[in-house]
Write a structure and sequence with these properties.
Order of helices and strands: HEHHEEHHEHEHEEEHEEEHEEEE
Number of strands: 15
Number of helices: 9
Shape: globular
Largest sheet: 7 strands, parallel
Radius of gyration: 19 Å
Distance between the termini: 26 Å
Helix content: 25-40%
């Protein structure tokens, strides 16, 4: 396993386990203890983990939006599965809005299989990828946030209102114990609220790490979302049985 691959794997493990010892990582990654310690030191220097008691733990401040490079490295394989599932809702000729969350970054591969799409996004990296795939793309414009390389603010919100969106594909920080979608960023929450208000169908991408996870700002009750794509059966706890058909497990 290459060094950067080990880093990604360590971050994935910490996202699920919160804390892990160096000895356990050594066994899980099939590498020596000194190698693991060097890896942890490097990730600590990058401000991606916190060294603690012979191991490492994840950065737990939920009021801080982590940098894009850090967030997109978490659960990358699972995010790709979620994107594949979300793309099945999209039909040829649709107008689609995709938000700037790192969960949606890989969706361009699957949208490129559709014909005559128009895609709107406030995510600059995603917009660049969509254009390379030959997809007609609009980027909202507006203030650019360094941590996410995305556009937010009143200009971006007004831009979205010019479109009749067929499908909104988005994610956020998590779903709290009451079933409310939440996020630590008010500007990101406002962008998503605007997109929801102007969309015929909504698709929420939710990996298992987002369940029972709270942040300061409320977006919408999960029961009001049309489609939920997830990798966890625990999502059923938020819904009555009659609504289980809106859930896709990948």
């Amino acid at each position: 396993m290459l060094k950067e691959e080990r880093y990604d794997k360590i971050l994935e493990i910490l996202e699920k386990e919160k804390y892990v010892s160096a000895h356990k990582l050594s066994k899980m990654l099939f590498v020596s203890l000194p190698t693991v310690r060097r890896d942890l030191e490097e990730l600590s220097l990058r401000h991606q983990i916190i060294r603690s008691h012979g191991g490492a733990k994840k950065i737990e401040n939920e009021h801080i939006v982590a940098p894009l490079d850090f967030r997109k490295s978490i659960n990358s394989a699972e995010k790709k599965k979620l994107c594949r599932g979300a793309a099945t809702v999209v039909q040829d000729n649709d107008i689609v809005f995709v938000d700037a969350s790192t969960t949606t970054l890989q969706i361009a591969d699957f949208l490129s299989e559709k014909k005559n799409l128009t895609v709107i996004t406030n995510g600059i990296p995603l917009a660049a990828t969509l254009v390379k795939k030959g997809i007609k793309t609009y980027c909202t414009g507006g203030e650019i946030f360094e941590n996410s390389l995305a556009n937010f603010g009143s200009f971006a919100e007004e831009f979205i209102q010019h479109f009749n969106i067929d499908v909104l594909i988005f994610s956020c920080h998590g779903v709290n114990e009451k079933g409310i979608l939440t996020d630590p960023s008010l500007p990101e929450t406002q962008i998503r609220k605007t997109a929801i208000a102007h969309s015929k169908k909504t698709v929420f991408l939710c990996d298992e790490t987002k369940l029972n996870r709270s942040a300061p700002f409320n977006l919408v009750p999960i029961q009001k979302i049309d489609y939920i794509v997830t990798n966890s059966n625990k999502i059923y706890d938020y819904f009555e049985k009659k609504d289980h058909d809106k859930i896709t497990i990948v």
